[in-house]
Amino acid sequence: MHELGIVYHIINRLEELAQEQKLTAISGVTLELGEVSGVLDDYLIDGWNWAVKKHELLKTAELKIEKLPAVTLCNACGKTYGTVEHGRICPHCKSEDTVLLTGTQMNIKEIEAC
User: CA 38, CA 45: separation in Å to the nearest integer?
Assistant: First the structure.
């Protein structure tokens, strides 16, 4: 379960940001998560709920996840399409000369301080 490692990475970053901004408590975190990031939402949330109890700064912080769609660009025809729905092969021209543009990222979008 690599999601727990990701949770601890997020927590470490939040602790750094809290120190820089002189925050004493964080009540919520919004995470942008790519549709094909390989991270399972349920495991991430379970890991989060377990781990934040061990950090005074985040003890009651809720994790919210916003899914970012996976989009692929076809180099042959120049069109984009939904990766999950169509995979590597362009639905417009049937080319395999495609590249994933978005969908693998993970970003801390918003931090709610109290």
Answer: 14
Q: How far apart are CA 86 and CA 36, in angstroms?
A: 13
Instruction: Give the chain's end-to-end CA distance (angstroms, integer).
Output: 31
Each residue's pLDDT tens digit in the chain (114 positions)?
A: 589 999 999 999 999 999 999 999 999 999 999 999 999 999 999 999 999 999 999 999 999 999 999 999 999 999 999 999 999 999 999 999 999 999 999 999 999 998
